[in-house]
Design brief:
By secondary structure, this protein is mainly alpha-helical. It has helices spanning 17-30, 34-53, 58-116, and strands at residues 2-7, 10-15.
């Protein structure tokens, strides 16, 4: 998957092309920066390592992990639902506003015609 090489400033990481493409696809899909995605991946690895080293608390860690996932999913669903609701309301009121504008233009034309008589 990757090869580490030490240099004067620390480590560089070389990814295989398929791994690099998968990483870039994740960046695009989740609209996230490289450092943020690496932080999330490393955090997930830390949790998995914690499950192994603190085996006596494995169930507790897994339950906590599931609760976090549930909260994240509910938050994402709420955001998506709100976004859909906003779009629906926007479309509904845009049509009403266009109808009102058309009605005002008709009345302006009638007023202008009456003034010219």
């Amino acid at each position: 998957m990757l090869e580490k090489k030490e240099n004067a400033s620390g480590y560089t990481v070389r990814l295989r092309e398929d791994t690099k493409k998968a990483f870039q696809d994740l960046l695009k899909e989740y609209n996230i920066s490289q450092p943020d995605l690496m932080d999330k991946l490393l955090s997930a690895i830390d949790v998995e390592e914690l499950k192994e080293t603190a085996y006596y608390r494995r169930v507790e860690i897994e339950n906590f992990d599931r609760m976090l996932e549930t909260v994240r999913e509910q938050f994402c669903n709420t955001v998506a639902t709100n976004g859909n609701t906003i779009e629906l309301l926007k479309k509904k009121y845009e049509k009403e506003i266009e109808d009102l504008k058309a009605e005002i233009e008709k009345k302006d034309a009638i007023i202008a015609e009456l003034k010219s008589k």
